[in-house]
Amino acid sequence: MIVRNELRLGVNVDHVATVRNARGGFHPDPVRAAHLAAVAGADGITAHLREDRRHIIDSDIERLRAEIALPLNFEMAATREMVEIALRHRPHAACIVPERREERTTEGGLDAAGQMEHLRPMVAELGAAGIRVSLFIAADRAQLDAAAALGAPVVELHTGTYCEAIDEGPEAFERERARIEDAARYGAGLGLEIHAGHGLTFDTVKPIAALPQIRELNIGHFLVGEAIFVGLEQSIRTMRRLMDEARAATEALA
Ligand code: PXP
């Protein structure tokens, strides 16, 4: 049986920090946003400490760990520097993402299949420290096989291409949705916990939230943008409601 609260919402606060960093100083504070996210129904907080510190900075991670009771999902590149930081702060989870300095955002999934030897010791080291390791990968069976072979307990499926497909018409949107569905089923069959995220909006979240294998969605940019118009609390509450509606509809069919 599917329980509604099994679908968690992780609120990504990176872009609160983007706005802060546009001027330097302390406002708006991503930790204040995390407090509000907890009030609005988030189950976790996600933050990506990029190599160039373009949004989240080291002290944000320190404060998120110290001041926020919700689990922290620390997004990190597969580098020694980031492993050391994760080991120091011991977040609930570490999501390993690909990172290129010149990209505007995380543009593709991690090539887990092509980097097995590089990733294996990191996954083991983080896991041994009690950090739940997640790999941010494309909805691709070879990548899921690699994640399982690496012993990662969790994968996060990259929903960026799916979200962009909404502008290409219903056929493209359905094709990409089906790709996520296939990956969610296949990955769950391998024993992986399935998360998803990137680019999700009010218009794209429901078909993904409806997939019963998916346990967590991580959403940031759209929520922070929508907050300009309706406030962060309302923006998160609406997303939470849409997720719950979609999951309840799945339950009703089960
Ligand atoms: N999940 C991962 C692994 C990400 O890298 C990001 C973007 O930082 C997100 C989720 C959230 O994506 P968005 O900000 O587009 O909602």
How big is the Rg?
17 Å
Number of helices: 11
Helix and strand run: EHHEHEHEHEHEHHEHEHH
Q: Any idea how many domains?
A: 1
Class based on secondary structure composition and strand pairing: alpha/beta
% residues in beta strands: 15-25%
Number of strands: 8
User: What is the straight-line distance between the termini?
Assistant: 7 Å
Strand order of the largest sheet: 1-2-3-4-5-6-7-8
Please explain how this structure is put together:
There is one protein chain. Helix content is 50%, strand content 17%. It is of the alpha/beta class and 254 residues long. The radius of gyration is 17 Å and the shape is globular. It has one domain: Aldolase class I (TIM Barrel), CATH 3.20.20.70. α2 packs across α11. It has an 8-stranded parallel barrel, surrounded by 8 helices. It binds pyridoxine-5'-phosphate. Pyridoxine-5'-phosphate is lined by residues 12, 14, 48, 75, 95, 97, 105-106, 136, 156, 197-200, 218-222.
Summarize the structure in short.
The chain is an alpha/beta fold and 254 residues long.
Blueprint of the fold:
Blueprint: E1 8-12, H1 14-23, H2 30-40, E2 44-48, H3 58-67, E3 72-77, H4 80-89, E4 93-97, H5 116-128, E5 132-137, H6 141-150, E6 154-158, H7 160-164, H8 170-189, E7 193-197, H9 205-209, E8 214-219, H10 221-230, H11 232-253
Parallel strand pairs: 1-2, 1-8, 2-3, 3-4, 4-5, 5-6, 6-7, 7-8
Helix pairs in contact: 2-11, 10-11
